[in-house]
Structures are given as C-alpha cells and as structure tokens.
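Hey, quick one: can you model this chain's 3D structure?
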Amino acid sequence: QLQASGGGLVQTGGSLTLSCVASGSFGNISLMAWHRQDSGKQRELVAHITNGGETKYADSVKGRFSISRDNAKNTVYLQMNNLKPEDTAVYYCYADILKGYTILNIPNLQRYWGQGTQVTVSS
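Sure thing. Here's the predicted structure for all 123 residues.
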C-alpha cells in the first residue's frame, strides 16, 4: 500500500528524488518519513514530516536533503542533493495512519512501511 520509487545509481555530488505513494483506502495520514538501512547497519531515520509540514532531519543529511509531501496525492518526497558514498543504502518510507481515537481521545496510529528503494552513490 506504500510504493517507493526513485532510487538508482549516482555519482558523488549527484542528486536523486525519491517518491512514496500511499494508495488504497486510507484515513488521515499523520507522520510520513524516510528511513535508510545499509547492509550490516541499523535502520536509521533520515527525515520525517508531519501533516502540518513540520520537518526533522538526521544530522548527516541536514542541508543536503529535503523532505516534502503532497497531502492531496498521499505522497512524500525526498530530494537528495550532494550525495555522498555514505548515503548508499536501501531507503524505506513509512506513513502513520490515523485509525481513530481512544476513549481518552488519544490518536490511534498504525504504521505502514513501503518496500524500499536502493540508492547507490559511487565515489
């Protein structure tokens, strides 16, 4: 239900734009984000964006990556500039979907992950 695309092979200093579309019968989408995982390493947060447009970035990508979303299209984007070999990883998107509220009016969120898209940066 989450489809990521846009990965590929690029040289150091190059750019790529990743897209992730949430398709199907979704309710309100709260947080959307990108994580990445290189072989032998833990998955790490790259960036996230709230439905209000607030963003957060990993220190390693600040100033180079930009996350955005189109709520009408249920799509999140990751613009990656000045790519470095250490950015090489499989990039995964996820979306937190609002399923309702508890009796205490606490949001009930369910997280959906995309399948991942490979980004390889050659030196």
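One thing worth noting: The chain has a mean pLDDT of 94.
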